[in-house]
Design a protein that fits this description.
Mean pLDDT: 96
Helix content: 25-40%
Strand content: 25-35%
Number of strands: 11
Strand order of the largest sheet: 9-8-7-10-6-1-4-5-11
Low-confidence stretches: none
Distance between the termini: 60 Å
Radius of gyration: 21 Å
Bound molecules: adenosine monophosphate
């Protein structure tokens, strides 16, 4: 079974981001970038499948700037076999990304595509679902457990009322919850080995996919600063403030 894993280059989760002065987006100058945490879980799951003998090859794909090769190399160091970069410097919509991933899926013909449930920069949570719609593949989103059973994949997912298990006929799309596994750290020898693994670079044009966007970001604003709290001396004072100041009771 060939597995394709979609990985995104995002701002590292430890970075406190700043909005650009002209409110067109986030200031990315000199900011530490990383592999999206949900994508790390996706890579780990695919690599475990390969180690258990159920996956034959793990191909990682990213859509983004030349620098996204760094995150592809990280995925290779974690155990993926080869990488594909669809190079684009544009700010692409989820639909455009899903269309590019569909073009890669058409070319690679995997039995399974694993994506993160969301990218921590844009929090869209829609690329996997769009890819499922475009390919017509079965989908199991927010997976916290994945089990291969012949030509079926059982995916357990947490929902409001408890755990739900869906049985997907392959080929299928899975999006990962953080509960699915704990990604490994890349060892130094594997980081060195990853430098020699194949990394193909293509473009949206070569894949015949339009990058035209159906939506436009109007403005990006930092959240309002929260005012400092106060300490009250008695319950009576608290009730008075809730009644007359906050007007919530
Ligand atoms: P999103 O729908 O943007 O929250 O992203 C969900 C998942 O889609 C991510 O965790 C990735 O697996 C995949 N994805 C989103 N953007 C890209 C991209 N530019 N390149 C590759 N995969 C992506």
């Amino acid at each position: 079974m060939k597995v394709v894993v979609a990985v995104k280059r995002v701002v590292d989760f430890n970075v406190k981001v700043r909005v650009k002065a002209d409110q067109t987006g986030i200031d990315l100058a000199n900011v530490k970038m990383a592999l999206n945490p949900f994508c790390e879980v996706a890579v780990e799951e695919a690599v475990r499948m390969k180690e258990q003998g159920s996956a034959s090859e793990v191909v990682v794909v990213s859509v983004g700037p030349t620098a996204a090769q760094e995150q592809l190399r990280t995925a290779l160091a974690l155990g993926a076999d080869r990488a594909i970069l669809v190079e684009s410097n544009e700010d692409l919509s989820s639909l455009a990304i899903a269309k590019m991933l569909k073009a890669v899926v058409d070319r690679e013909q995997p039995q399974l595509v694993i994506l993160g449930k969301q990218a921590i920069d844009s929090d869209n949570n829609q690329t996997g679902q769009m890819l499922a719609a475009l390919t017509g593949f079965a989908q199991g989103t927010f997976a916290s457990k994945v089990e291969l059973a012949g030509d079926r994949l059982n995916v357990s997912r947490e929902i409001d009322s408890g755990m739900q298990t869906v049985c997907l006929k392959l080929p299928a799309i899975v999006t990962t919850d953080l509960r699915l596994n704990e990604p490994r750290y890349a060892s130094l020898p594997n980081i060195m080995k990853a430098k020699k693994k194949p990394l193909d670079v293509t473009t949206p044009q070569a894949l015949g996919v339009s990058t035209a966007s159906t939506n436009n970001t109007v403005k990006v604003e930092a959240p309002a600063v929260r005012s400092a709290g106060i300490k009250v001396k008695s319950v009576a004072e608290l009730v008075e403030k809730l009644k007359n100041q906050a007007k919530v009771i």
